[in-house]
# Entry
Amino acid sequence: MITFSSLPELRRRKSEKWRRFPADVLPLPVAEMDVEIAPAIKSALIDMVERSDTGYLGLIPELGTAFSSFAMDRWGWQVDPTRVRVAVDVGVAAIEVSRLFVNPGDRILVNSPVYQNFYTWIKELHCEMVDAPMIEIERDGIRTHRLDLEGIERAYASGVKVHILCNPHNPLGVIFTREELSTIADLAHRYQVLVISDEIHSPLLYNSSEFVPFLSVSEQAREVGVAVTSASKAWNLAGLKCAQLISASERIESKLRLLPEAVHFRTSLFGAIAAVAAYENGREWVNELARDLDRKQRLLNDLLHQHLPTTYLHKPFFGYLGWVDLRSSGLGTYGPAGKGFVRFNFGTSDEIIIEAIDRMKKVVGH
Ligand SMILES: Cc1ncc(COP(=O)(O)O)c(C=O)c1O
# Structure
C-alpha cells in the first residue's frame, strides 16, 4: 500500500526538502516524495542496522543481477549484470564518465529546460554548455514537447563531445520514441559523441511499456551510450546514495574500466542494498505508486483548471514533477530557459496538493 505522510510527520524529516525553507512554507520544488518507503526496502535496511552491518560497500554482484532482471521484466531490455557499475549518485556517475571523454573547455550538449543540475555538472567539468532546446508542440489537443533533432545534429557537427540526455525528460514530463532515440544514436555514432542517458525517472512511467532504454535501441546506441540511473527517485531513496552506470559495448566498457576505483567504494552500502530490494521486491509497490501519481497529475490538472484557469499543466507521462506554465501571471522560473514556469512536485498527499493550489491562488490571483 502507498502511504503519503502527514504534514506534522513530514516536518520531523531531516532531509533537504524539510530543512531548506521556513516552517510555514510547503516545500514543493525539491524532488523528494512525501511517501513512506516500500516495506521491502524498509525491512532490508532495518535488518542491516540490527546486525550493525554498516561498513563499506565492496563486491555487490546481486545489484547487477537485480537491475538486469528488473530491466528485462519491465522493458524487455537485456542488461549484462557484470556491466552494471555503481557510483554514489547519478551526478557523480555522469561527471566521472564524462571525465573519461572530455577535457576542460570541451562542449557538452543538453536539451533545455532540463534538470538544473546538468548545468552544475558541466560547470564542475569545466566544460562549456551547448543547448538544443526542446520544442513546444501541440499533439492530440495537448501542449507537449519534442526533441529538436536538427538542432542536435547541428550541435554534434559543431564538435560537442558529450550529450547529457534526460530520458525521460525532467521537468517537461515527456518520453522519447524509439525512432527519436535511434536517430540520436545514429547521429552520435556518426559524429563520435558520447550519449549519457539519464534514466533515473524511468521506473515511474504511468504506462511502463512506453519507456525506451537508450541502450536498447540499436548497436549504434550501445557503441556511443552509457545509461545512468538509480532507485533513488522512484523509490525515494536519495539520501542512501547509490546510482548505477550501465554500458553495453566493448568500446564503452574499455573506457569505463579506467574509472577510479573510488567511484565504487564511495558509494553507500545502504544505498546498494536498498536498490537491490527495490529492483527485486519493490516492483508491485512502484507500479502502485505510478498509478497513484497518474491520478494525482489529473487531480492537479483539474485543480489548476478550476482555480487558476490562466495556468497550464503540461501533461506529465511519468513521475511526480509537473511543468506548470505561469507565464500569464509573470511569476515563476526554473532556470533561464524556464522563465515563467514552475516545477510542481505532486509526490505528496492530496491534502498538500489542494493546500498548495489554494496558496497559489492567493498569489497568482484569478
Ligand atoms: C534527471 C535527474 N537526474 C539526476 C537526479 C539526481 O540524482 P542523484 O541524486 O542520484 O544525483 C535527478 C533528481 O531529481 C533528476 O531529476
About this structure: The longest helix spans residues 283-307. The mean pLDDT is 96. The two ends are 37 Å apart (CA to CA). The pocket of pyridoxal-5'-phosphate is lined by residues 31, 89-91, 115, 166, 170, 198, 200, 230, 232-233, 238, 243 (CB under 6 Å).
